[in-house]
Task: inverse folding
């Protein structure tokens, strides 16, 4: 461990992993919310064309990729918003055009072969330069500030665009902002995770977090935790096992997701067998419904014909009538 | 009725629709503060398009729309108008608690750099207790029943402290127990002095609260009058199977409508 951290390139790789692990899930959650889980993948394809142009012209591949991804992000969002019947096909043309152009352009470069692109596609820990790190740091700061400022507006637009518009929120600018955030995230990740796999780091930690969290906010904390753990852990394993960092990071994230899903299914099964659903009744309990209300841990029970009903999901659970409650017993069951 | 500068919503010869084609047209109406207006009509009649047009969610083809005396295009005081869209489910793709969803109703009142303040929290709590969901604030909305989710959407609109509440089919697909609760919620809002515009299939649930009825059919306003007058003439005015009045279709003396089966596709027919 110590010798790994003593290496300059590993220090840079860990720092880059920390940055991308933290921001990718923050941007990804809105893509999950809007059912656009694959859009980051397409932007990665276009960013790759930017990389190829950078290699060919001898300029920085990071800047060229950033410009390509940002342009693609805006165009893609405008096509989506237009709702044109051929919009989906237009997106496919842009995305595959990007990856096709990158392969052709790179082969025109005296220094490059299509093989040169592998490191950009799948991530490589040895490639993070000091100047990359400065750019990534600045871009990460930009993403964090934008996220902090816009997160609830992005949440509102993603959860109910029609309502957001009626409330006077600037829906199109917010959607463009999210597209730009996605493009920037793609670029920040291009060294460590790779342009073909970045979408996974935006999405998979959120998939796991949706299982573990109980609110949008708490799920975000889980997602960032899992993102950082996967990215930093993946870089470490990548060094030790001599594997491409991107693939290692994503497999680690998927492992987290599977552990979360299996664990929660087992706990859910145990709880279900332990909880008793109240008789069906055509009455909605609520404040002032006429039944005595008893605050109970994180919910309120209602005394109905001498027994206690606890709201659970869309129905009510039965509390044992002479049940004395110990703190944190949580017999309302399931996730709430 | 109710014309003049005091009107909260005023339409003159307005036409709304989507894309190329208006769905409702020749709409002239004026809603005064404190009115509780039900917009009735069969599926595809254009009643949802009418309220979406008022809100700026449908395209306007003709006429004028004034909100609180201000032309629609210049209207910036969005929080004064609360909208409860017709939705059967809330986003199930990510977790969101009841409070988190309702808090988005405060966004239109917040500055870009503003934080969620104590005032915001107070209004969210108040909105939740008005709809009877104060005990579910930390529950994931996806875990609530359809009727409860509908009340979350009402609370979201209320959190913005609106003066006018526009609701699109709040009772559609809601069981009887929840319809009853919804009617109680609405009664509470009427008591608060809110002006309400509710698009509905089921007037029965709100019959006691509604002061005025507008019937939209085939893209035009077929009836607009006080609720008692509507009750006297409802069999003349309604002729759609949604209202089970087929037998009385031919009895209308005034405002005669040509009877036809709703199964026949009409030009401009569109959901909502």
Result:
């Amino acid at each position: 461990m110590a010798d790994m951290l003593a290496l300059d390139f590993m220090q840079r790789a860990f720092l880059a992993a920390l940055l991308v692990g933290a921001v990718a899930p923050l941007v990804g959650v809105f893509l999950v919310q809007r059912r656009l889980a694959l859009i980051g993948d397409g932007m990665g394809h276009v960013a790759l064309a930017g990389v190829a142009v950078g290699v060919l012209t001898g300029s920085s591949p990071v800047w060229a990729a950033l410009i390509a991804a940002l342009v693609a992000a805006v165009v893609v969002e405008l096509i989506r918003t237009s709702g044109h019947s051929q919009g989906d096909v237009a997106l496919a043309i842009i995305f595959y055009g990007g990856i096709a152009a990158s392969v052709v352009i790179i082969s025109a470069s005296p220094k490059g072969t299509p093989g040169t692109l592998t490191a950009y596609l799948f991530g490589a820990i040895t490639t993070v330069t000091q100047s990359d790190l400065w750019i990534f740091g600045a871009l990460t700061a930009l993403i964090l500030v934008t996220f902090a400022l816009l997160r609830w507006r992005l949440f509102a637009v993603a959860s109910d665009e029609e309502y957001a518009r009626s409330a006077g929120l600037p829906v199109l600018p917010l959607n463009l902002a999210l597209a730009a955030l996605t493009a920037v995230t793609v670029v920040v990740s291009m060294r460590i995770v790779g342009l073909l796999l970045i979408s996974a780091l935006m999405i998979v930690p959120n998939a796991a977090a949706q299982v573990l969290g109980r609110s949008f906010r708490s799920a975000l904390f889980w997602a960032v935790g899992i993102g950082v753990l996967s990215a930093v852990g993946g870089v470490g394993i990548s060094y030790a096992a001599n594997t491409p960092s991107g693939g290692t990071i994503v497999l680690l994230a998927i492992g987290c997701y599977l552990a979360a899903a299996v664990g929660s299914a087992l706990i859910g099964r145990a709880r279900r067998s332990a909880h008793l659903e109240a008789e069906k009744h055509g009455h909605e309990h609520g404040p002032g419904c006429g039944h005595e209300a008893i605050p109970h841990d994180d919910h309120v029970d209602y005394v109905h014909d001498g027994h206690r009903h606890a709201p659970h999901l869309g129905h009510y659970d039965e509390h044992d009538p002479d049940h004395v409650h110990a703190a944190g017993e949580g017999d309302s069951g399931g996730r709430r | 009725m109710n014309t003049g500068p005091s009107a909260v919503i005023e339409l003159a010869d307005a036409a709304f629709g989507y894309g190329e084609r208006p769905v409702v047209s020749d709409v002239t109406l004026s809603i005064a503060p404190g009115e509780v207006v039900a917009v009735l009509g069969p599926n595809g009649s254009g009643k949802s398009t009418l309220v979406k047009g008022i809100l700026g969610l449908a395209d306007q083809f003709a006429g004028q729309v004034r909100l609180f005396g201000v032309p629609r295009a210049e209207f910036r005081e969005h929080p004064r108008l609360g909208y409860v869209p017709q939705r059967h489910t809330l986003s199930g793709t990510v977790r969101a608690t009841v409070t988190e969803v309702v808090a988005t109703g405060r966004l239109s009142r917040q500055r870009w750099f503003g934080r969620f303040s104590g005032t915001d929290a107070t209004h969210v709590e108040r909105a939740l207790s008005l709809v009877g969901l104060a005990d579910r604030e930390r529950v994931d909305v996806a875990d609530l029943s359809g009727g409860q989710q509908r009340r979350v959407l009402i609370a979201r609109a209320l959190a913005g402290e609106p003066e006018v509440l526009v609701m699109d089919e709040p009772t559609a697909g809601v069981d009887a127990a929840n319809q009853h609760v919804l009617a109680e919620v609405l009664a509470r809002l009427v008591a608060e002095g809110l002006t309400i515009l509710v698009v509905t299939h089921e007037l029965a649930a709100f019959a006691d609260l509604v002061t005025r009825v507008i019937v939209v059919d085939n893209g035009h306003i077929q009836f607009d009058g006080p609720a008692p007058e509507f009750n006297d003439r409802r069999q003349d005015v309604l002729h759609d199977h949604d209202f089970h009045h087929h037998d009385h279709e031919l009895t209308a003396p005034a405002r005669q409508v040509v009877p036809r089966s709703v199964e026949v596709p009409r030009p401009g027919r569109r959901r909502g």
